[in-house]
Amino acid sequence: MAIAPSKCFLSPQTLTNRPSLLYFPAKSPSYVSFSTPKPSTLTLRKSAGPARISAASTVPAETHAGASSESKPTVLVSEKLGEAGLEVLRSFADVDCAYGLSPEELLARISRCDALIVRSGTKVTRAVFEAAKGRLRVVGRAGVGIDNVDLQAATEHGCLVVNAPTANTVAAAEHGIALLAAMARNVSMADASMKAGKWQRNKYVGVSLVGKTLAVMGFGKVGSEVARRAKGLGMHVIAHDPYAPSDRARAIGAELVSFDEAISTADFISLHMPLTPATSKVFNDETFGKMKKGVRIINVARGGVIDEDALLRALDKGTVSQAALDVFTAEPPSKDNKLVQHENVIVTPHLGASTMEAQEGVAIEIAEAVVGALKGELAATAVNAPMVPAEVLSELAPYVILAEKLGRLAVQLVAGGSGVKGVKVVYTSARDPDDLDTRLLRAMVTKGIVEPISSVFVNLVNADYTAKQRGLRIREERVSHDGPPDVPLDSIRVHLANVRSKFAGSISDAGDIIVEGRVKDGVPHLSLVGSFGVNVSLEGNLILCRQVDQPGMIGRVGNILGGSNVNVNFMSVGRTVARKQAIMAIGVDEEPTKETLRKIGEVPAVEEFVFLKL
Ligand SMILES: NC(=O)c1ccc[n+]([C@@H]2O[C@H](COP(=O)([O-])OP(=O)(O)OC[C@H]3O[C@@H](n4cnc5c(N)ncnc54)[C@H](O)[C@@H]3O)[C@@H](O)[C@H]2O)c1
Ligand SMILES: O=C(O)[C@H](O)COP(=O)(O)O
């Protein structure tokens, strides 16, 4: 049963909240630090890009972003990136363009880099994240496919992976269509023959496209653009994609069909799915065997979706009459690769995204995403972290700080030796559960619980992973509340189950450590400890005292702190019944000495007390 606090404000509330970084550790270098030299109010800066949490102060944002060269982050660009993207990067970071590094050279250099930008040619393996020794915070993939980045290792190391998913879509689709037409009309073979001095008009008779069936395998961004263009060429387009909505296909005039129907009825098959464990070698002896004899195959997706030995056999048997390949299992393929040398195969060296326009677009898209992520913004193209829309982030900002501080407080109340395992987070809100995205809040509670008791840093990328690794079971509960729905939350309550507390007053009737907080005027406040209602702003440090409720207690403890030059910024008393038990919550700017704390403990009515760092 919560008891209403009796309020006692000793000094005006100061606003010194320092928002925690969403992606990166508090120990990050200064260019991503939001600490302010003066008390400041928390504001959210809204720009064209994603929302950025920052602390408004007399120091301009640019100073926080760290223009001084010694505090600039370092971005390693390991493959050719468009000049416009490099300019965006240079305005914020030291940019190291080191194209064509060997894997060993990359490992040797990576611990000096905060971000790495790659295309498909750099393998960002677990060894890269390990060699980075915690410094690498963002990997930017200047393109779509992230099969060359070990996402699991990135997540485990708290490293954000962002990509540039849209800028090369049209280029890839156009290349697919170019290969389709060039293959059907034997353009590259005829060209090579003429350059060899021949004139072979009968040898290079092709096939027409109009009226033929094209199966688009993977109806995403590139696949649907290929389908749209193929319709314009008069082809009958069918598509297979287990996750694509049929109305999107219908709108283009394509029909979604099963895998077997697609491959067995098509004259041309164009591949546009990602390389995943499910799609690896999905075109193999068995599936080639189901295809219409003489089928033609185009691959601008990933080499690994085809079993290349099986394709060679199918070409030799004539099951597949021609193939046009832009991508290969190993890139570059060996010089004597039999597929590359095959007379019925045309090849390009992974050129799908290689247009001037696409490369400029991709470079800008990835540079902006990487700079934003280095500043602590939530990236819209995050691959291994939840994407939290700017509006959601904006309204949750003070609750994000509250969630971390509650986690931090709760774990400090645990008695040494009793490991934290079961955590319950209760959100009281007037909102419909579907309108309240709590992933960010859960991540911040985890950060608050884990960081004070370990050397691990926790961010939005690795919060759930870290919780799981440490055996923390975090359960979330929603309690509905009759308040205005424009306020996202009334309160957040953190329960730690099955632990002993070093401050008995924090244990609820049900036996859990409980701390609850609310946001008041944009500032996080502690509103409940155990069964005692309090009202103290969560800033600086906190002393909790459980005492016999009697007159003069505030003055006595206040005098001890004042005598030791410890500034009290807020104080509140919560009690069960008048003149029985009470909890005094005292916000202090400085950390009291042991001697000062001992004196507080010696006040006769004080039964227990604890000092907590926020
Ligand atoms: N050659 C190049 O230079 C080049 C350029 C751009 C993209 N790509 C590659 O093209 C592919 C598609 O890119 P995108 O931007 O269209 O990606 P996308 O994510 O927009 O589309 C991929 C589609 O594949 C579907 N899919 C997933 N599993 C499937 C399965 N088992 N069977 C059928 N469909 C499945 C998904 O539902 C999705 O709709 C990726 O592999 C990407 O790396 C290559
Ligand atoms: O996935 C992609 O975006 C394409 O395969 C392009 O890869 P690239 O950046 O290496 O050209």
Give the fraction of residues assigned to helices.
Answer: 25-40%
Uncertain residue segments: 1-21, 25-69
**Chain-averaged pLDDT:** 85
Proportion of beta-strand residues = 15-25%
H/I helix tally:
19
Bound molecules: nicotinamide-adenine-dinucleotide, 3-phosphoglyceric acid
Overall 3D form:
elongated
Class derived from helix and strand content: alpha/beta
The first-to-last residue Cα distance is: 25 Å
Strands side by side in the biggest sheet: 11-10-9-12-13-14-15
Main β-sheet description: 7 strands, parallel
Q: What radius of gyration results from the CA coordinates?
A: 31 Å
Q: What's the total number of strands?
A: 25
GO cellular component, one term: chloroplast stroma
InterPro entries: ACT-like_dom_sf, ACT_dom, Ado_hCys_hydrolase_NAD-bd, ASB_dom_sf, D-isomer_2_OHA_DH_cat_dom, D-isomer_DH_CS, D-isomer_DH_CS1, D-isomer_DH_NAD-bd
Organism: Iris pallida
Catalytic activity: (2R)-3-phosphoglycerate + NAD(+) = 3-phosphooxypyruvate + NADH + H(+)
Structure description:
The structure is a single chain. With 614 residues, the protein is an alpha/beta fold. It is built from 19 helices and 25 strands. Helix 2 (83-90) runs parallel beside helix 14 (356-374), helix 15 (390-412) packs parallel to helix 16 (439-450) and helix 16 (439-450) packs across helix 17 (463-469). It starts with a strand and ends with a strand. The structure holds nicotinamide-adenine-dinucleotide and 3-phosphoglyceric acid (3PG). Residues 144-145, 165, 168-169, 172, 217-223, 240-244, 272-275, 278-279, 300-302, 326-327, 350, 352-353 line the site of nicotinamide-adenine-dinucleotide. Keywords: Amino-acid biosynthesis, Chloroplast, NAD, Oxidoreductase, Plastid, Serine biosynthesis, Transit peptide. One of its GO terms (molecular function) is phosphoglycerate dehydrogenase activity. Pfam families: 2-Hacid_dh, 2-Hacid_dh_C, ACT, PGDH_inter. Belongs to the D-isomer specific 2-hydroxyacid dehydrogenase family.
